[in-house]
Write a structure and sequence with these properties.
The complex is a heterodimer of chains A (220) and B (318). Chain A is mainly α and 220 residues long. Helix content of chain A is 82%, strand content 0%. Chain B has one domain (3-317). Classes of the chains: A mainly alpha (220), B mainly alpha (318).
Chain lengths: 220, 318
Amino acid sequence: MDRLYFDIAHLLAGGLVLTSFMLLYQDRLYALLNTYALQALVLALAVGWQAHIQHAAHLYITAAIAVIFKALVIPFALHRMVAQLGVHREVESVVSLVPTMLAGIALVALSMVVMLRVTEGADPLAREDLAFALSVILLGLLMMVTRSNAVSQVVGFMSLENGLILAAAAAKGMPLVVEISVAFSVLIALIVIGIFLFRIRERFDTVDLQALDDFRGERR
Amino acid sequence: MSMFESLAIQIVEMLIVLLAAPLLTGFVRKVKARLLRKRGPPVLQPYRDLIKLTKKEAVIAESASWLFRVIPYLVFAATWVAAALVPTFGAGLMFSWSADMIAITALLGSARFFLALAGMDVGTSFGGIGSSREMMFATLAEPAMLMIVFTLALIAGSTQLSTVAAFMLSPAVGLRVSLGLAMVGLVIVAIAENARIPVDNPATHLELTMVHEAMVLEYSGRHLAMIELSAQLKLVLYVSMIACIFVPYGLAPPGAGPRELMIGAAAYFTKLAGAGALLALFETSVAKMRVFRAPDFIGVALMLGLLATLLRFVSREM
């Protein structure tokens, strides 16, 4: 039965990496937000499965937080924000799709090489989840780098946070206090970023962050 | 099993693939027409088209070289040999031991290479544009195919289709995310290679969008019949390959008796019909992409193949 437990954990963690790639692939804002909600759902399943394997009840709370905040509240709030901002709904990217995908693959390979070497001798489940978590984090960073639209940068930031949760769940979970404070700090970050978005829009009539560069006089 | 018996099975298998190829195309067209609430041509229409084409005179451009006449037969031969390597109803194929999935990819690749040469041979602009587009897609589709083959080889421990199918039927296969990724990738490659709708429309003759049709625009008569038949064979080949790798249920094991072979054949035709219906449904529900968006779509297959290989490496390390 052990093999099956491992396979399901592998499936869910791999699915998380796959949804990170799906986030990179989207070129419409609403589709991007829906994919983000899907990623949060997969994360909740992965964490829930870890809770089941490790018999750690507090991880179920983590999974519940993931479903409620990340799969429902945040995407809903971002949907409303995009609607109120009235920005046009294409995601402008700085780098085109195929190079981004290839860079993403290279990052996944890098994180696997690094993590599998570093964690040698650890529990196989934790090793694998740490490797996948690092790839999700790096893909989130890649998304923030390659997108010029502020909303998609926010989504990149949030998906990075999903990777952190996966890593924490794999390493026998973190204390509940830390868990809840992380969840709330993400919510607060969302609120702050939301205010920033509206300020940027007010000032520049766009949420394209290249306008900020132009304003500072940094010409590409 | 005696040498004679396995040779007989191999020959029957090759003939079945050849005879079923126009039927599958006709079936897909029929289902597609029905989904659009049209009546559609009869299922046997592709056979009639082929017969009609072979009876017609072949018109060849004055500027065509000898390659232009030879290539339809070369393409057909390469595709048929590749199709003979894929187990359809029984796994114990005689030729299957002499070549693996990499050889199938290579055969199909050389068929495409010759077809692209033929497109440029006459010197018309359509042929050239078709060849260049086909090659643009191929640069992404072929590495994707190879990555998928590597993934399967890493999981099953072999690139032989029969061995892979036997492994997939055994309980050792488990639940693997890599296999799911490889399946989606292989389906995308199959759609792109067979010039089906999101990448290319097999029914169009609109200059801006055609890819495969533009390459073979100069062909007529028996040459066109050969090319159409090899395109139909390629569709059957991909469907059989996907069915053999991912849904090998009912496949008769090597050395099976006549009863198992009958069950295998019934299962095979069910799979063909199911795949044809799914293809028609998919084609009616999506729109064709702009030509320059198609690399993004095929790039997904490459991405999935690479990702599947990487994920497989992780779980193998454990």
